[in-house]
Design brief:
It is built from four helices and no strands. With 91 residues, the protein is mostly helical. It folds into two domains: 35 residues, no CATH class; 50 residues, no CATH class. The radius of gyration is 17 Å and the shape is globular. The mean pLDDT is 78. This is ATP-dependent DNA helicase.
């Protein structure tokens, strides 16, 4: 059995402006630059924002989190930052 999301709950709750933003981005009709609404911008490191100051791979919620980035260079930088925050059994 396959379940499919019929209504994007975030767009429903966030309103029309967010729904249009998501559709334009997903359809490739947004211009070359997009403006991220201030309420969705991180004020500190995105790795810290998503995973906390230390990353515990044994945390039950660990596998529920992800960071997406546009380029491999961005991912490499984020991975390096995350590795610095990773708790290991030897610590």
């Amino acid at each position: 059995m396959v379940y499919r999301l019929q209504v994007n709950m975030r767009t429903r709750e966030a309103g029309l402006e967010w729904a249009i933003f998501v559709l334009d981005k997903g359809n490739g009709t947004a211009n070359g630059r997009i403006q991220i609404l201030e309420e969705f911008q991180c004020q500190r490191s995105i790795v810290t924002e998503i995973f906390g100051k230390t990353i515990d791979p044994n945390d039950a919620d660990f596998c529920e989190r992800a960071i997406f980035a546009a380029t491999n260079l961005n991912i490499r930088q984020l991975n390096n930052e995350a590795l610095e925050q990773l708790c290991t059994s030897g610590q």
